[in-house]
Amino acid sequence: SQPPPRLPLPLSPARWSHRRLTRRSYPSSCPGRRRDPGPVQPPPRTRFSSACAARGAAMSWGAELWDQFDNLDKHTQWGIDFLERYAKFVKERIEIEQNYAKQLRNLVKKYCPKRSSKDEEPRFTSCLAFFNILNELNDYAGQREVVAEEMGHRVYGELMRYSHDLKTERKMHLQEGRKAQQYLDMCWKQMDNSKKKFERECREAEKAQQSYERLDNDTNATKADVEKAKQQLNLRTHMADENKNEYAAQLQNFNGEQHKHYYIVIPQIYKHLQEMDERRTIKLSECYKGFADSERKVIPIISKCLEGMILAAKSVDERRDSQIVIDSFKSGFEPPGDFPFEDYSQHIYRTVSDGTISTPKQEGLKIDSKTTVGKAKGKLWLFGKKPKGPALEDFSHLPPEQRRKKLQQRIDELNRELQKETDQKDALIKMKDVYEKNPQMGDPGSLQPKLAETMSNIDRLRMEIHKNEAWLSEVEGKVAARGDRRHSSDINHLVTQGRESPEGSYTDDTNQEIRGPPQQHAHHNEFEDEFEDDDPLPAIGHCKAIYPFDGHNEGTLAMKEGEVLYVIEEDKGDGWTRARRQNGEEGYVPTSYIDVTLEKNSKGS
Questions:
Q1: From edge to edge, which strands make up the β-sheet containing 541-545?
Q2: Where is the composition biased (Basic and acidic residues) (predicted)?
């Protein structure tokens, strides 16, 4: 829209303001007086004002809030503060997610097993399920970290960048508004100064007119005084007319600038502020959505983690765990048989012919009852607490079943190593053939040391495998024979004879009874009497020590290389044989350390 047209100016002085103009008329006798056209009207409404009115119906800040610059300044600042407050909220939520993920990972690390060897690996389904749950929980913690990272990148980082841009844009728009207001104030000051100057000149013209009229009516006044007053009146009147025209021009200019200010400049600035604030609102809406999307994106993976935990719970098998317990602790021993009836009255009614053995021989084989009772306690470790001794190479310190499993595991490991060494040997041979055919590729002799080492390793592994397979065959044979021997002893012990061993092995040799004459009963508590024999066991053979044995563990018997001992109990498949010295001291010795010779009658039992 164009500025309003210039209006005809009144001759009389008037009082103007930036909104309205009041009129003061000259007296009718004032020379040069022209007709006063009346007060200057404000510029008519243009098409722009109608458009602004229509825009006001559409909630335009420029039309509805044209005089609310300070409030808009406060509102836009509040909007940025609110955006930064939400950004702070997102930051704290990110810290919570990060701390939560860190605590979950520490919890998983705390309860994860510290595996030092394969033997300590979990085998029970309940343990495996718990470790699977820990793995799923660790993955869940990773998803919480993903949520924190997504929020930090998509929401918090975007909010901080957008807040900085908003501050810059707001500052620019407010500066433009202040400049426009300052320019309008400057125009008003110019108009006001011209108005005051015009008003002052009008007063001077009125004074000159009064002076001229007074001298003109005074008969005593000279013609020169009258003429001088008339000239002064014309001068003041001319100056008033010039100031009037200047004031009218400044007024028209101010009205045009004011119209432009309130209908063009300010609406445009407020429009930019409104658009800026609306974009801020839209950005907040997008960040709210991104805040939720960051959580929603990981829900499928979190659901899979939870499903994994449920599957881990369903994988628990109590039957399998029970079987693992059996496999882990099964010794392979047979339960102890019934204790035989021991008839002590047979010594009372023994005839003279029954004691045909000479006294010196009996004294030579006489056993100290205290020593026998004390050493007999050692036999209980086979069915109770085992002695804590060093692990032997053939695992003879273990029960038969556990020994068989250990030997089988070692054989499997040795076979894997053998296969590895064999593959390496084949590769070296092929490489050597290539070097022989193409000497430029390498020296065949450089592979000979490595090939010799590999062949040595293969021979060593084969020997180890053969040795362990022999031990395994021995264990499996003894375990298989033990059942037959137990069945036979269960039948024989029903015969009420005094020549029955505690383990159910039967003999009909009277000489063996005389070798172990009964001794006086020792007084022990009820628990010890339940498991200990009052009489020494009869010898069923003899053995010779091939290797020395220290016998430091409880229940064992030390022996020197070449020493001859009596065998009072065979090896039951556990790798130990019970022996006795001539002085009556008893204990267990490793079967692999001795050469056993059993009497014929004992072998048949």
A1: 586-590, 576-580, 564-569, 541-545, 594-598
A2: 480-490
